[in-house]
Write a structure and sequence with these properties.
By secondary structure, the chain is α/β, with parallel strands linked by helices. The chain is built from nine helices and 15 strands. Helices cover 32% and strands 27% of the residues. The strands form two sheets. It has a nine-stranded mixed beta sheet. Strands 3-2-1-4-5-6 form a six-stranded parallel beta sheet, sandwiched between helices.
Length: 341
């Protein structure tokens, strides 16, 4: 039996504490240390040392590290891990700018290291089931993807706005569930909370197959909502990622003797099905997949979000912000890597 992988964690904020909880119980992995500059033991599992610096963690010897510090520090921490020859699971977004994300991709790829991005929605049971059903053609041609992600402002977020913190979820999951790339975006943002960053965005986009996307995201609502609706030739799927429920609304068939309406090709309400699907914790699934990727090594068949896929999401989010700033539609260059979605 092989020795457990030695993992480290950088950051003990809200998300970092969740990573610590999962890592401390993950089969085949030992959490050997947590980096938190404040040195606060709160949130660290019993017996796991809380360290002041990344150098202290690297001195312990780790196979990979989870980066859950503020987005502005992702590049610095990631580059240091790559330089040390350590793989990394970096929380989303990959970096605060396209240029920083590109440098991270180059650093890990040039050293042939396993690295991924923590786009956790990919592991939500409702979205995984939706993607499988779309791939099987159950919806026919896809016409539109609509996402709504809203709720109260999280005071833990200080370095980025709602586009980079929340809309990146929807950008990544939309490309992933459809298997399509973004070709253009048009967006509007507002800032109403007194912060320097935007706290509401409405974006419209087009994917490479011609389908339309709509993203509504904000930090200004007392209602917490996480919904993805995919409409196609045979009906629509509705995924609620808060409850991990997936519902299918079928197009109905209804005959009419009214000659004027008979010529109109529309749809009518049909059957509704709520699927029974296993509901495992997405964060646990994410960690299991990344553990398996580290064990398989570079070039292995790993179901993780690659750094290049994370880079593409940063590129699209940057285009959303550019569109809002310029008041125009922004076209995106084609993705450089096959399978970028």
């Amino acid at each position: 039996m092989s020795a457990p992988l030695r993992a480290g964690l950088v950051g003990l904020g809200v998300m970092g504490r969740n990573h610590a909880r999962v890592l401390s119980g993950l089969d085949g992995v030992d959490l050997v240390g947590v980096v938190d500059p404040a040195g606060s033991p709160g949130g660290a599992p019993h017996g796991v040392p809380v360290l002041e610096s990344l150098d202290d963690l690297l001195a312990l010897g780790v196979d990979y590290a989870v980066v859950a510090c503020p987005t502005a520090l992702h590049e610095e921490v990631g580059l240091a891990l790559a330089e040390a020859g350590v793989g990394a699971l970096i929380e989303k977004p990959l970096a605060e700018s396209v240029e920083a994300a590109q440098r991270l991709v180059k650093a890990f790829e040039s050293r042939n290291l396993v690295a991924g991005v923590g786009h956790i929605e990919r592991y939500n049971p409702a979205l995984q089931s939706m993607r499988s059903r779309l791939e099987a053609g159950e919806l026919g041609e896809v016409f539109q993807v609509v996402t709504r992600r809203q709720g109260p402002f999280p005071h833990r977020i200080a370095d980025v706005g709602v586009v980079k913190d929340l809309a990146t979820h929807d950008i990544d999951l939309t490309a992933w569930v459809t298997g399509q790339d973004y070709v253009s975006v048009s967006a509007h943002t507002v800032a109403r909370s007194g912060r320097p960053h935007e706290d509401m965005v409405a974006a419209v986009g087009r994917l490479s197959d011609g389908s339309m996307v709509n993203h509504l995201v904000n930090w200004l609502s007392p209602l917490k909502e996480r919904t993805t609706v995919v409409t196609g030739d045979r009906g629509c799927f509705v995924a609620d990622t808060l409850t991990a429920d997936l519902t299918f609304y079928a197009n109905g068939e209804m005959s009419t003797e009214w000659e004027a309406l008979r010529a109109f090709r529309g749809v009518s309400e049909g059957d509704m099905i709520r699927y029974a699907i296993p509901k495992r914790e997405p964060l646990l699934t994410e960690h299991e997949r990344f553990r398996d990727a580290v064990l398989a090594g570079p070039g292995g068949d790993a179901d993780i979000v690659t750094l290049r896929q994370g880079l593409r999401t940063v590129e699209v989010s940057a285009a959303v912000l550019e569109s809002a700033k310029l008041g125009t539609t922004v076209s995106l260059r084609a993705s450089e890597v096959a399978g970028a979605v």
